[in-house]
Structure formats: structure tokens, C-alpha cells
Amino acid sequence: MADNQYDLIVIGAGPGGYPAAIRGAQRGLKTAIVERESLGGICLNWGCIPTKALLKSAEFYDHARHAADYGVTTGEIGLDWPKVIKRSRQVSDRLTKGIGALMKKHKIDVIQGTGVIEKPGRVVVTNAERQAVAYTAKHIVIATGGRPRELKGMEFDRRTIISSREAMVLDQKPASLAIVGAGAIGIEFASFYATMGTKVTVIEALPQILPIEDPEVATVVRKQLEKQGVDIHEGAKVNRTVPSAEGSGVSIGITTAKGEAVNVQAEKLLVAAGVVGNIENLGLEALGVRTDRGFIVADRTSYATSVPGVYAIGDVIGPPLLAHVATKEAIACIDRITGHHESYVNYDNIPGCTYCLPQVASVGLTEPKAQEKYPDFVKVGRFPFRASGRALASGDWDGFVKVVIHSRTGEILGVHMVGAEVTELIPEIVMAREMELTVHELHSMIHAHPTLAEAVMEAAADALGEAIHI
């Protein structure tokens, strides 16, 4: 029984769970992690990483088709769909093995199976052979993540009506694909499949695609997708979905924002309309852990739940549903448990990235949100990538950097980018905001030339009325 006693047990080995286990081991806690599927969770296996591998293949395919623009002569450009999917899976597998190596390095016991919290301090794990073993720990962290939300009338059959999981491993590239939901997941898949030659239709209930992004950014992405032949219905309502009797497709009846009835035919329907927490079959109700609208309620400083000794982090506690947030919450949670109270999560300074073509990256308030909060003190600076020497040399000049500031204090309220590789530029802004730098300091910092990052400096200068290159 002594071998089953721990200081810390983490349930779930995704981007919240495995960092929690590692930080626990670093802080001297005897640690175990429980996982029913693969180390790395959804992010490494079915989310963040494999989708980026797919999008990289799409980017290469697109560049190859335009090689002549760079003075490069090629033969006929082909597409090996099975290899595209295989490469994506190989990337995930490699990272999963890396997580296993980290568990061994930190002497963390990996317990394969489904964990149920029987009572505070006691977790019962049932393995694939239905053998149940009890483990004890003073501290239990729930990091079971989330899963795609099913919509009424669009329940997943995993063949015609699919989730993001099936969309990553389709045996054949569909001739047509309808996507319900135009957040980051929906738009990334729209970009990937449209670039690969699939006829894509996007249906979004809210007035714009990428609803949480700045409207100007969403407009650039929409125009690029439409250029690729994507049909986009914003402010649309799905009335019915009817899979064909032969399983060869689906008919989706929608009402557009203008009140028009439209029937969309597609080979596959991808539902990407949100996430629900994996809170079932954990023993939470009997334990008395409070939940709300499909997520666990946890204090956003200590990550304690309503039951002493039980904590929760990551997607299972609700938005923002981002892997890097789960990781930061994991570290803050364990540090609090072990008395290191300096760790915290600044929820006002969380970057968001969408890896469509062109990419989107943002942090802080959008211009409309800033105007609501500071109606008389908002100024905006922009710098288009078409004025960037580095962007022109690379051949990717669509998009811009937009800086939103407080006109009186110089505070950087938000920055919004759309363009090639902008997801690599956003950390500069996150750091500037974390260090409470003003727009004046952002503008005054020397940026290497020629780089895409110069656009950040130039946008800051434009907000101050001091831009040089526009």
C-alpha cells in the first residue's frame, strides 16, 4: 500500500496535467499522473500540434504552386494526402514520447487508466482490463481538459458529421466541407482544407468570423478565405441537418443574416462550435465538487475547488480555453500548494493565436472593447506589411499590425496582428504589457532591420503620430 501513497496525484496528462506533475516533482512532491489515453492530451495528440503540422503542409503546398513567382521552376505540383496525414501523426507521436521521457526524468509514476475521486485524498484508477486500484494523495489536481461540444441536431456520427478529431485523420480529402463555428478551430480547418482544394463553406452564428478578434483582423481573414473560394455565412442560423441515406454527404439548411433560406450541400460537416469540460465519471457530484455549465468551478488564484484538497486547472475550469493558459495555471496551482505564492496567471494579458493563412495573433482589448472602456481616450496606430521590406522580400505582405493605446497614459491596451508569422511576434507585446511599458517605450526600442517585428515599432509610432515609413 505504501507504493500507492503520494503527495500529489494529477488526473489528466495534457498541457495542464503534465506540467502540474513536473512542477510537483520539482517542488519535492512524490507525484503520480493518471491518463486514460495518451500522454500530452488533446493538445499534443488531437489539437494544437497536429493541426499546425497539417497547416504547415498546406503552406508548403501553396508556396509550391507559386514557386514561379520567386523565379523557381518546378514540375507538376501534386498532393499526397495520406502522407500529409501521416506526417501530422508522426509529429504528435514524437512529442508524446518526449512527455514520457520527461515523466521518467522527474520520477513521476504514470498510471494508465480512468481515475475517479472516491473521496478527498483517494483516487481509484480502473485500467483497460477493468482492474481497479486505489491511490492516496494529500493533493489531487483535476486536469481532464475538454472536448468538442455537440449541438442539437448535429450530433457527431464520426463519419459524415465530424468533430475536429476526425477532421485531422480523414482517409481521403473531401471534395466539399461545411464548417459550423468560425472560431480559431473552425477557421484553421477552413484555411487548411481550402488551401488543399476542398470546397469549404463556413457558417457562423455571430456577426463575424473569429468573433473574439478585432473586426479589422477578421475582415482580412475573411477576404483571404473568400479569395480561396470559401463561402462564408456570418450571422447565420442552422435550421436543420440531413445526412444522406447513403452516407455520402449532408444537407444543411440555414437562414442567413439577411433572412434568406440557403441549403448547403457538403460531403462532410465539421462542427466546431465550442468546448465542454470533461467532468463526467470523475466522482465530482458525489464528492460535492461544484460545477457550472459544464465546467468545474475553481478559484482563479489557488485553483482550489469547493472540496478541500481537490484542485482543477485548464479547459475543465472553462475559458480561456488555451493550452498555454492551462500550463500557466498548472504552475501557479502547484506553487500555491507548496507555498510559492509569487506564481499567478495574468488573465488580462493572455495572447491568442490562430494559425490560418494568413496567421492571426492578438493580446488585450480590441478597438471596440477599448472604446467601450475608455470612450474618450483611445488612439490607434497601424502598420501594413506591404510597407515592410522584410515582408515584401518574403512575398507575404497581406495584413498589418494594429496597436490600441490609452491616449493620456500611453498604456498599450491591445495589439492585433494578421499576416505571415505574426504568431511569432506577439510575445514582444505580451512582455511589454507584463512589464507595464508604454507605447513610447515600445516605439523607442531598436528593432533589427529588416524584420517583420519592425511593423510593431512602426505601428506604435503611428499611434503617436510619428511613423516614418507610412
Word description of this protein:
With 470 residues, the chain is an alpha/beta fold. It folds into three domains: 2-148 and 276-337, FAD/NAD(P)-binding domain; 161-271, FAD/NAD(P)-binding domain (3-Layer(bba) Sandwich); 358-463, Enolase-like, domain 1 (2-Layer Sandwich). It has helices at 17-26, 41-46, 48-65, 81-105, 164-167, 184-195, 215-227, 284-287, 323-337, 367-373, 389-394, 426-434, 439-444, 454-463, and strands spanning 5-11, 31-35, 109-112, 114-119, 122-126, 132-142, 146-148, 161-162, 176-180, 199-204, 231-234, 237-243, 250-255, 261-266, 268-271, 275-277, 291-292, 295-296, 310-312, 352-354, 359-364, 378-384, 400-406, 412-419. The strands form six sheets. Strands 1, 2, 3, 4, 5, 6 and 19 form a seven-stranded mixed beta sheet that branches. It is globular. The termini are far apart.
Topology diagram in text:
Blueprint: E1 5-11, H1 17-26, E2 31-35, H2 41-46, H3 48-65, H4 81-105, E3 109-112, E4 114-119, E5 122-126, E6 132-142, E7 146-148, E8 161-162, H5 164-167, E9 176-180, H6 184-195, E10 199-204, H7 215-227, E11 231-234, E12 237-243, E13 250-255, E14 261-266, E15 268-271, E16 275-277, H8 284-287, E17 291-292, E18 295-296, E19 310-312, H9 323-337, E20 352-354, E21 359-364, H10 367-373, E22 378-384, H11 389-394, E23 400-406, E24 412-419, H12 426-434, H13 439-444, H14 454-463
Parallel strand pairs: 1-2, 1-6, 2-3, 6-19, 8-15, 9-10, 9-15, 10-11
Antiparallel strand pairs: 4-5, 5-6, 7-16, 12-13, 13-14, 17-18, 20-21, 21-24, 22-23, 23-24
